[in-house]
Amino acid sequence: MKKIGFLFFSFTLVCFIASPFSFAQNLGPAEETKSRYLISFHTSIDYELIKNLESKIIVEYQDMPVVAVEISENNVSKLKDYPQIEFFEPDLKIKPVSELKVPAESILLFKGLFLDQKKASPQIVPWGIEKINALKVQEKGFTGKGIKIGIIDSGIDYTHDDLVVCGGQVSLKEIQTIWMIMGTEQR
């Protein structure tokens, strides 16, 4: 009985000692981590460059020379050296967030954009205004003056404060297209 116990103990000990070596044999060189990046080219996609950087095209976008690739972090640092690349950036996953509601006047008055406090409205500034730095652009003098906007939406609220026509006018007589014909008019 002692002999069987000793053999069992010896076998267990050998397995325990040998197990790290068996795992070590299975481990090869550490695989380089790859990340997703968007690469935009000036004129056309350089497939040879992507191949040379050992990256894999995940998505090729239509109508623009942009690809989403999986590329190693070592090769990402090399992208800036190629003149045919316009820009590159991480291909981040975008998730919707709940809308942040901030009273318009609190932001605009703080930024000094309302010269007359009577002009402040009870509107809400959507969270995206801050996100795209729209107020900084407006501070640089870009107001949108002279920009024409066409809206094709029959459900628009033309009484909304943001849609007040300042000195301009809209004449549908000048814009007669097929979209204006409902099918019930006499021709």
UniProtKB/TrEMBL annotation:
Hydrolase found in the keyword field: yes
Lineage: superkingdom: Bacteria
Gene Ontology molecular function: serine-type endopeptidase activity
Gene3D superfamilies for the chain: Peptidase S8 propeptide/proteinase inhibitor I9, Peptidase S8/S53 domain
UniProt entry keywords in alphabetical sequence: Hydrolase, Signal
GO biological process, one term: proteolysis
InterPro entries named among the record's database cross-references: Peptidase_S8/S53_dom_sf, Peptidase_S8_Asp-AS, S8pro/Inhibitor_I9_sf
PROSITE patterns on file: SUBTILASE (PS51892), SUBTILASE_ASP (PS00136)
Signal sequence bounds: 1-24
Family: Belongs to the peptidase S8 family.
Name used for this protein in its record: Peptidase S8/S53 domain-containing protein
